[in-house]
Amino acid sequence: MTFFVISKVFRIKNMDILSLFVTVPVLTILALVFTKGLKQARIVSMVGSLIQLGMAINLVFAYFKERAINDSIMVFTKNVVWFEQFNIHYAIGVDGISVALLLLTAIVVLAGVFISWKMTDLPKEFFISLLVLSTGVYGFFISIDLFTMFVFYEIAVIPMYLLIGIWGTGPKEYSAMKLTLMLMGASAVLLVGVLGIYFNSNADGGALTFNILEIAQVNIPFEAQKLFFPLTFIGFAVLGALFPFHTWSPDGHASAPTAVSMLHAGVLMKLGGYGVFRVAMYLLPEGAMHWDWFFIILAATGVIYGAFGAIKQKDLKYINAYSSVSHLGMVLFALLMLNKTAWNGAILQSLSHGFMTALFFALIGMIYGRTHTRDITKLGGLLKVIPFISAIYVIAGLASLGLPGFSGFIAEMNIFVGAFQNEGMFYRIATIISVSAIVVTAVYILRVVGIMLMGPVKNEAFLNLPTVTWYEKTGILLLLIPIVAMGVAPLWLSDMILDSLQPFIQRVL
User: How does the protein associate with the membrane (predicted)?
Assistant: First the structure.
């Protein structure tokens, strides 16, 4: 098993298993520095990403084994003093939610490496930037110290400017700057919220702390929760495409190279929902209950707006980007419902969307690389000339609209059943509005399939498009298998998530 091999190499104890998720990407980056040419760069990136995936898979097995004998909120914890003066620690640990998101990250990163196999423009620098982003994401998901989490959050976000600004297409400078400014603005708001939590973490007479588990034991005053919950929520939720702060996302997706779009939508945007759940709602539950009505309105609006926005688009990337706004709005909507079933749906939706949207962007990149257009009105009959890519696109579309047997159905059913458990006309109306997005999703998915894949081939130049390569098939299958697996056998994953939700339920109820 990969984990045990790595453990021997680094001579680590079982409790240090999580540190490898930061160490291995950094070592891969260092190895990339000394590579020469495209071939060496992609082999080193592939090996490093394969090791990360092996670590993530083995972490799942290790988690179940540890959970059987350890009922702590977090397992595999480690705590090392970083800045003693401010009580800042390198504190890490995982529960079932973060384990699942680590697995998602590892799969999408490896798929992104395969999809970028033929990257010829500064390949070494490109793969280094991708791995810096993944390092930040891994570090964020394992952190249980707010300051350390914020540092990894910024490490994950900053490379996006370079990845879009250097390797992007179209108005890439504008898109990169817009994305950076909006996310940095959100980070400033988030920092105020984090500091507000920190300075109220000694409300019961203890020492100030950034440790999430320690803060959860403190009764933060209601007035402070009322003030800092919206700041913390917005700070994270902007990355999760919260309406009306979502506009950076479609432009960023449209200009980003394929692998960057995959990591952007498939992994990076998950930091928003995870941060809302792990920090804002867990540490400030009374603030969440006070403000839920306001943010439910924004989230439900985002669900509908994103779906209708996708219908109006002709560019494949913009269609998928607005679809992401809708699906991630559903994640925020479910989190604000404040019950176990909806929260389970929110986590499942984050995972499902991560795989689906990464697969969509991979397929869009393949189509664009062959036809040199993303305008669906200029495409047609692709099912005849590139049948493998077209068939997978249809499958991804069916998963996106929530067809039973795929991951989207399991996630959305939990969300809507959980949402209906809330009594009160306001919650029921908001749920009905959000449910209606399923119909709109079916419209724009079937519209794209009909225009782009069916009918006669519109352009004779498309009659001899290149066939799918082995590395493209590998990237596709890495993303397709989890979509089907979640739909066919979701119970092990759902049980792992539900078990980790209990501490959150106890805080809210």
Answer: Multi-pass membrane protein
**CA-CA-CA-CA dihedral for 175, 178, 182, 187, to nearest 10:** 80
**Nearest-angstrom CA–CA distance, 196 and 498:** 30
49: Cα separation from own chain's centroid: 17
Collapsing DSSP to helix, strand or coil, 205 comes out as coil
Rounded Cα distance between 99 and 59, Å, is 7
Residues 6+ apart with CB under 8 A from 132: 25, 29, 155, 159
Core vs surface per residue 225-249: b (16+ CB within 10 A) or e: bebbbbbbbbbbbbbbbbbebbebb
Helix (H, G, I), strand (E, B) or coil at 78: strand
- CA 226 – CA 223 distance, rounded (Å): 5
Predicted confidence at residue 477, as pLDDT, reads 93
Mark out the alpha helices in 143-221 (DSSP H runs).
146-157, 159-167, 172-199, 212-215
Please tell me the distance from the alpha carbon of residue 213 to that of residue 353, in angstroms, as a whole number: 28
Token reading at 274: 């995870």
Residue 291 and residue 116: Cα distance in Å, rounded?
Answer: 43
Strands (E), 24-120: 75-83, 88-94
- The percentage of the chain sitting over the pLDDT mark of 90, rounded to a whole number, equals 33
Each residue of 437-479: pLDDT tens digit? 888 888 888 898 888 888 888 777 788 888 888 988 999 999 9
Q: Which of 282, 285, 293, 279 is nearest to 333 (CA)?
A: 293
Angstrom distance (rounded) from CA 276 to CA 283: 10
Residue 68 pLDDT? 86
Q: Residue 509's pLDDT is what?
A: 64
Q: What is the pLDDT of residue 6?
A: 42
Query: 152-165: string of b/e by CB count within 10 Å (b at 16+)?
Result: bbebbbbbbbbbbb
Q: Which of 339, 350, 352 is nearest to 271 (CA)?
A: 350
Nearest-CA neighbor of 268 among 328, 336, 333, 190? 328
Query: Inter-axis angle of helices 285-312 and 316-335, to 10 degrees?
Result: 160
Crossing angle of helices 407-420 and 340-371, rounded to 10°: 140
- The token pair at 442 is 């079916």
Average pLDDT, the chain: 87
- When pLDDT is averaged across residues 416-434 and rounded to a whole number, the result is 86
Residues 6+ apart with CB under 8 A from 72: none
Q: Which 3 state secondary structure label does DSSP give 47?
A: helix
Position 9: which residue type?
V
Residue pair 146/197 in contact (Cβ under 8 Å)? The answer is yes
pLDDT in tens, 115-163: 888 888 888 888 999 899 999 999 999 999 999 999 999 998 888 888 8
Number of other residues whose CB lies within 10 A of the CB of residue 468: 16
Largest CA distance in the chain: 75
* CB neighbours of residue 314 within 10 Å: 13
SS3 121: coil
Gyration radius of the chain over CA positions: 22
